[in-house]
Amino acid sequence: MGFPYPRDPGMATGKHRCIRRHRGYLWSMSIHAIHSGPMLFLRAAEGGALRLAVTCLRPADSPAPVIRTTDRVPVEALTTRAGTTLWRSEIVVTESHPRYEVDGTAYEVAIPDEGDMTVAFTSCNGQERGDLDRSEEERNLMWARLHRRMGHEPVHLLLHGGDQIYADEVTESHPLSAKWPDEVPEEISAAERHDLRETLANGFFLRYATQRAQAGYGDVVSRVPSLCMWDDHDICDGWGSLPQKAQNSELATILFEAAREAFLLFQFGCRGDEHPEICSGRTSAFSWRMDLPGLSVIAPDLRSTRTKRQVMDAHSWADLDSLLHSTEAQTLLISSVPALGPRLSWVERAMKLTRRMEEYEDDLRDQWQSYAHRDEWCRFLRALMAVHDGEETSLAVLSGEIHLAMRATMKTDTGHMHQLVASGISHPAPPEKMAIALSWLARLGEAPLKGHPIRMHPLPGQTRPYVAQRNYLLLRRREGQWAAVWDLEDSGETDPLPI
Length: 499
Fold this sequence. Notes:
Layout: H1 15-30, E1 36-46, E2 49-59, E3 67-68, E4 72-73, E5 76-81, E6 84-94, E7 99-102, E8 105-108, E9 117-122, H2 136-139, H3 141-149, E10 157-160, H4 190-212, H5 217-221, E11 226-228, H6 244-247, H7 250-267, E12 288-292, E13 295-299, H8 314-323, E14 330-334, H9 344-351, H10 361-365, H11 374-388, E15 394-399, E16 406-411, E17 416-421, H12 432-442, E18 454-457, E19 471-478, E20 481-488, E21 492-493, E22 497-498
Parallel strand pairs: 9-10, 10-11, 13-14, 14-15, 15-17
Antiparallel strand pairs: 1-2, 2-6, 3-4, 3-7, 5-6, 7-8, 9-19, 12-13, 16-17, 16-18, 19-20, 20-21, 20-22
């Protein structure tokens, strides 16, 4: 969602224009079936080999893609929508044969081992209005930069930290959902329910599919295995922090089901009725863990069970406790919204004093620092600190969501736990005054756990804690030591920050 700053005027004054444009977009895309290259999803890293899923998009009336490693491998159709079929294959690449082919084009994959490793982290891959109207060159500039980097530095893993698409306009494609959440339909007939479900499902499918076909983005995801966790814009702006009437409505249930199906298809490479094998098997949420040589990556699902009064339900908390058990030497935990940040609860309470600021309430309710989530926030920090202070482990938190680059630390019993924020890779940077205001707010400090203060710090080479530039994050292990580097659109690469 991002911290509140002046919104696109079209969100209020141009709403009906946006609806007409988006409906036209859906119609035109549905008659031009989409063809795109592969995307890799990591299933397991075992003994110098990677087990991967590969997905490709082809027009429904075209042959299935031909996928090979050493030999041709089977493919299956996951779904067909809007004249386009999403195909999947399961492959294994090894140190001796680290490549695969799709329709005769070869793709090289870097295989991680106990030595040097590079992990990329991105978030906020879009914008609220007109995302797919932008030129590919401008939209995917940072993706193209990451792809060029791969020519001289192998990237072993790509972590997507939330808002992989901006689906806000999808609800505007159907009359019943066009004014939701401000207006909630009282009743939906069976025929309307079916039509709404199909319209929304096609809308999500087309947004993902169109993005997949773009240069820059496609060049990276075809060569680096991905692991993904969603956030609100993958469903709708503010999902989980909306008013109870809207969140609990039948329309919201239909919307979530459509978003969930697309999330599984395009962010896990799974059918809509599958539960991803990397996810905890105990709940319908999608918290997951992946272990690589010397590295554990964990992502709790902070959206599937979120309400205005809770971030995760009891089952999701139990899953997180299990996922945090016996991690590798370095643990990277993805918290789609930052776990360490300034004292926003004061701002949240102040905003409630004026109706002019009500539209921003869900933005602040989304944050761990919200007064409504204070107890859960403390529980979350204690769980992370227990891992960070382990005898042979260290934990760093990776986040996005705020459309700014930032870093923070929390004092623990054995040192300092790092929070690294990279946001966003294609979302336009907010006004510079937003970075200045948040940097001023950061001076107040925060200490939700007594004796463990949180402090915000400038990125290496910067003068303020918050940087208003598009960016992505690289985490490098060199000679056994991990360091973080931000690639900032205007300033370039920061100096390494040991973590």
